[in-house]
Design goal:
Layout (H helix, E strand, L loop, with lengths): L2 E6 L7 H18 L1 E6 L11 H17 L8 E4 L5 H10 L4 H5 L2 H12 L6 H15 L5 E3 L5 H18 L7 E3 L34 H9 L17 H14 L3 H5 L5 H27 L2 H29 L7
Parallel strand pairs: 1-2, 2-3, 4-5
Helix pairs in contact: 2-11, 3-6, 3-12, 6-7, 8-11, 9-11
This protein binds adenosine monophosphate and tryptophan (TRP).
Length: 332
């Protein structure tokens, strides 16, 4: 059976981008068709300055939203990364396979480190090594497919390179995974700045729809989305990024095609109204289930504990095999 692994960092409140770019497909497709593991990758939240209490709260909230979105513990494994030691344990071995040069070429590292330096902040070493930990997350489960948004494809390419290199050097140990992107809305853009990604760690702004935003807030944000000069509704990501973003969001919510949908509108206002309606409809059940989940924290703890046990059971022998392959003495 195909093995799937993916994760979300608890670095902010989940956005519509997380939902349409990742979560929705995990729920609707992946958990039904594969042996799927989905993780709140909390170790990845520590690469930048963070408040411990906030990381803890966001980790719980992220787990609750994953379940509220429809991940079903009877169908898939939901767990917190730091509960399973194998991730950090394997990461070190992979640091011995990765090179300094290839990590410095990662676009996210270049962008984030440049931003930190410009602000006079120091850059944590873990920001550079982060894609190696992500590689460990994936390889520890002999994952076949990694469903992620477009921004993560370079990291999955690195994962493939490291898996191939490790296998060549030390013998077949890891499965070489591939990234899979959703057909539409692989990259949901900020409603106020449609040339940049709608990101949960960005400063809270009018351009970001959060999954837990109230209905009228969602509507307001979408109705005030920046559109492009001109009046015609056409699907053109380059020339009309604002309109294209709305069309992609609408298409993702309604399982439609953005170019076809464009033909149905003759004004930006009508497009915005339908997009707002579609998003509100998609988020409604999610918000209701979230309220029920946070009312019973004990039940969620049980789900996460059982998820971690199952994850450990899969990862442990794989990581043990990797330790033996590189020449470390078995603990016996
Ligand atoms: P992150 O928020 O960076 O932890 O990402 C969690 C998942 O959501 C990853 O698979 C991302 O690729 C996806 N994702 C995050 N933001 C967006 C976005 N604006 N559009 C599409 N996918 C996204
Ligand atoms: N780096 C991913 C992101 O920023 C999150 C992540 C960490 C991940 N480990 C992973 C995604 C393993 C897929 C598989 O979105």
């Amino acid at each position: 059976m195909t093995r799937i692994f993916s994760g979300i960092k608890p670095t902010g409140n989940l956005t519509l981008g997380n939902y349409l770019g990742a979560l929705r497909r995990w729920v609707q497709v992946d958990q039904h068709q594969a042996d799927a593991l989905f993780s709140v990758v909390d170790l990845h939240a520590l690469t930048i300055e963070h408040d411990p209490a906030r990381v803890r709260a966001l980790s719980r909230r992220t787990a609750a939203l994953m379940l509220a979105a429809g991940l079903d513990p009877a169908l898939c494994t939901v767990f917190v990364q730091s509960h399973v030691d194998e991730h950090a344990r394997l990461s070190y071995l992979l640091e011995c396979v990765a090179t300094d040069g290839e990590l410095r070429r990662m676009i996210q590292y270049k962008e984030k480190s440049a931003r930190a330096r410009a602000a006079g902040e120091s850059v944590r070493f873990s920001l550079l090594s982060y894609p190696v930990l992500m590689t460990a997350d994936i390889l520890a489960y002999r994952t076949d497919e990694v469903p992620v948004g477009e921004d993560q494809t370079q990291h999955v390419e690195l994962t493939r390179d490291l898996a191939v290199r490790f296998n060549q050097r030390y013998g077949e140990t890891f499965t070489v995974p591939k990234a899979t992107a959703p057909p539409v809305a692989a990259r949901v853009m900020d409603l106020q700045d449609p040339t940049s990604k709608m990101g949960k760690s960005h400063e809270a702004g009018a351009g970001i729809v959060y999954l837990l935003d109230d209905v009228d807030v969602v509507r307001k944000k979408i109705m005030r989305a920046v559109t492009d000069s001109g009046r015609e509704v056409t699907y053109d990501r380059e020339a009309r990024p604002g309109v294209a973003n709305l069309l992609e969001i609408l298409a993702a919510c309604r399982d439609g095609d953005p170019a076809v949908l464009a033909g149905a509108y003759d004004s930006y206002g009508a497009l915005k109204k339908d997009t707002a309606d579609a998003v509100i409809e998609v988020l409604r059940p999610l918000r209701e289930r979230y309220a029920a989940l946070v009312a019973d924290p004990g039940a969620m703890d049980t789900v996460l504990r059982e998820g971690a046990e199952r994850a450990r059971g899969i990862a442990r022998p794989v990581v043990d095999a990797a330790y033996a392959a590189v020449g470390l003495v078995p603990a016996g």
